[in-house]
Amino acid sequence: xxxxxxxxxxxxxxxxxxxxxxGTPAHADTPYAPLPPHNPYAGPDxxxxxxxxxxxxxxxxxxxxxxxxxxxxxxxxxxACPTVLVGSDGYPVALCTTIFGLTPTVHLxxxxxxxxxxxxxxxxxxxxxxxxxxxDDENRLVAVDGDRNLLRIGHRRDAAGRWELYVDRSLxxxxxxxxxxxxxxxxxxWQGRVWFATGxxxxxxxDDRTGTVRALALPAGEKVANSISTAxxxxxxxxxxxxxxxxxxxxxxxxIAWRRPYDRGPGRKPGQLSWGTGSTPTFFGPRTGxxxxxxxxxxxxxxxxxxxxxxxxxxxxSVPVLKAGGSGSENSPVAAGNTVFVASTxxxxxxxxxxxxGPSVPSSGRFRGGFSxxxxxxxxxxxxxxxxNKVRSAAVPRLSTADGLIHTVLxxxxxxxxxxxxxLDPYYYAEVDPRTGAVVRTEYTGAGFLFDTLxxxxxxxxxxxxxxxxxxxxxxxTADE
Length: 481
Prior knowledge:
The protein is an all-beta fold.
């Protein structure tokens, strides 16, 4: 479906036009580097995981669409599609959850137009069980299904030349994951093991080459509601009470290197899915790309960005963020070099919450938006809030170190000047200047439920193509040539 885009708006300074055309990046005076090191057991950096890489930087070395008119195509899949990954062969793989039945389903997309060329339903699990996955170094989707099986799903052409998705390898985690629990996050380490974390607070490693599974139960009452991140230093896990760095013994048994509790506030905030941090921990740093680990707490009334040294968990800073709009976030921080960006989800109207989400405190809140930038000082002595605004991001932002822009989607009120949300709200693909927080280009994509990006991540594929999940499928945003 090709959309007519009658509400195009573009305000581009000359320096930014040069950046989008392939000249000097818009952030040339601010180095967003290095990114986390490449994990040899994962797919391409920027497109291997929901958050770009196994360090969950939400940054990519790939540029977005070039300057000029844009086109937006809607791929209708009758599913919410929070995860769109792209392998080294250029084929996008989407992990979606059907609207009716809530069945996790893998789609292989045609890179030419985004259409689904093959699909594979998986055993149904928890709401978050159909969200987090990654591509391995052989372009296989690694995910855990509702039957607690660790799957590697490949794609190939059959004898008739048609694409098919198939389970290339399977390993049961039933001995480590209790009945009634479900895996919420997976990520590979530098030894080729797959780390996993469950909603009930079990963290483990699985080696499907040998069949070895080892697990550790975190303290009772601590849940894991987001994904996990891996780096050479270890595996970062944020529970509903604390942030952890874990390493593994020689046999793969997880052990806690450090634990840092945070302020979880009086309850789940409106626009969040659990009581606690909404962050997948983010590795970043100016020297190795994984010097620091950061999450956002759930303090009331104002949340704080927390930065720790990955080496020992010592705290670098705690900085109040999202002060201009709603102060709460379900999104992972975006980070590269010395800089971290945080987007607010406070008050975002999710159509469905996890069964154990509980009531929000307060009981309701308006989605006003909010976006903050925090810089870690070069000497590591603390952090500073660089800017704070009311950008109404409706997706997890993605920083491109190639074009020097933050790419996201805005949900604007149908009645300008108000803060209310409605089923008629319009959505805009947007680019933000990371130096100032100003929105520098927008492109109308559509209005209403069909185009709701629901705080899901957009992935930038080779060729400047943006794949953005929505409640009903995927948007494919490209330069209109």
